[in-house]
Amino acid sequence: MIRVVQWGCGAMGSGMLALVLKKKGLQLVGAVDSRPALIGRDVGEHLGISGKVGVAIRADGGRVLAETRPDIVLLATSSFTQEVVEPLRRIAGQGADAITIAEEMAMPRVKSPELARQLQDLAVQQGITILGTGINPGFVLDTLIIALTGVCQAVTAIEASRVNDLSPYGPAVMKTQGIGLTPAAFARGVQDGTVVGHIGFAESIAMLDAKLNLAIDEVVETKAPIVSHVARETRYVKVAPGMVAGCHHTARGMRRGQAVITLNHPQQILPHLENVPTGDYITIRGKPDLHMKIEPEIPGGVGTVALAVNMIPAVIASAPGLKMMADMPVPYCLPNTAETET
Amino acid sequence: MIRVVQWGCGAMGSGMLALVLKKKGLQLVGAVDSRPALIGRDVGEHLGISGKVGVAIRADGGRVLAETRPDIVLLATSSFTQEVVEPLRRIAGQGADAITIAEEMAMPRVKSPELARQLQDLAVQQGITILGTGINPGFVLDTLIIALTGVCQAVTAIEASRVNDLSPYGPAVMKTQGIGLTPAAFARGVQDGTVVGHIGFAESIAMLDAKLNLAIDEVVETKAPIVSHVARETRYVKVAPGMVAGCHHTARGMRRGQAVITLNHPQQILPHLENVPTGDYITIRGKPDLHMKIEPEIPGGVGTVALAVNMIPAVIASAPGLKMMADMPVPYCLPNTAETET
Predict the structure, then answer these.
(1) Which of A90, A126, A193, B92 counts the highest number of beta carbons within 10 A?
(2) Looking at chain A, which residue has its C-alpha nearest residue B134?
(3) Is there a contact between B22 and B43 (Cβ–Cβ < 8 Å)?
């Protein structure tokens, strides 16, 4: 049995907790979260499943690690390398492997080269593995594209889009995507940094370039408002015609002024109201050209939770170091226990 | 530089020779083929490229290995484990890794469990790696499906189809697919084993089951004639309306009498004449359901050649043993040298 601690028990972390409990060969030995409302609760109670799991959520990560001695920790507390480096140091210090869904950790050297070097050195020194993963960055716009190029004799350009529906998400996501704003307020938000869009383009492009050697010398991003022509409404936001229903965020990986990688990620609420199909789309130009479609898109939350848990045995088996998804073995769905087989 | 010997210089082997010459970090040091017309020819002459490569095709594989001391050998001589085991023994004896496109070697334990055990023991003993790969089996109907399940929390069933066009292929393929026969002659050919259809279904299903733990207890295959409604003609075969234009080969991986994996591979000439689109299609049932399309299909020859060459560094870096594609790192397109960049 692989001993697992879940660090961070929010929306994503709760999904991981539930999935760890279903997987053959994994044993949940600890759960960490600092939110007062969660501290002391049994994981079963927290997840709303019948019966106690026998693991209580506790605030002191260091103590949980020391007492439970996990083989691996799933870390779901933040999107940013700077904010996960401290828990990662504690985990490494305890000799445990780590998987984090922090978007920047898909390729931490992009935003935090010095921290990435430190984490790499620490991992090797402690003989542990650290992996950043998630649906995007981590899979749709990087690892999956890379895997498809395995059948290519040459790759000259990549174009990929992830068109999704943000309707299930809450007020925080609405705000960072500028949903419900006027186009003018959206433009100001892009300027002042409050309209964030997608976190992970630079990381995906760096991962593609690391494997495919495309000599990218610049990444250019644009954020445009998706102005709605119809009224759209979710539990958390109302968008009148003429207002912003989403953020069309794009990134181009440039080589000497030419776009070699083009990634599109228009994120909005209720795209079907304007007959916009959702899906994941990959075009690889080279020998041969390839055109891939997944419709509808791989659901982000379900996929991120799945990847974090499914990568556990590969991370346990991996040589020490700070890894990217494209360096790992082909991912796969871990078998569930007989009782939880659907 | 990784020193490469190409063993088998037919259609696929020639593609590999050409691609090895284009890839950064690979050095072609030898070429083996026993066909009298090829022996002694420079590889450049054989490929019809300008200039000599400086490597002549030779018949004696053992001598080529001993004299060139390759790091790895690409073996493209046969579809069957029984027919590649002897060259694999020689390659292992020389301490070189091997990649073969023999379809059965994608999962050799399915058809030749005893030989697979011997090859595994030999590989470990010699400290070398042996990998079977190719577009199918090896990628479309196994590795790619497995990679997609990485975003799944549960997998309950798999349905996948590869719909392709056999028009470029020669008389040997027409015969093994029963193309140009009457439906009655096709049925007799299925009975007497001359209509072979696709080689690799059992291997793909075994690979899926090895990773996804689907408890498959039986594989059921069917071969039906694709009877043409129109006249179809290629360089090698003429099909009148009412005659057989291809073989619709299917396989089902059963668990207690129920199909858990369904693989379809209708192979025919000129499917567009009856408005049949070609493509690779994957549906995964579980959490979530996933629907993937690649249209048109990944071209078989180009893809098989690419995979064999692209997997070289991963096989070199791998721990010793007999490996399947799903155990290897995520495949990717190796960079070409600056001169051959397209």
Answers:
(1) B92
(2) A151
(3) no
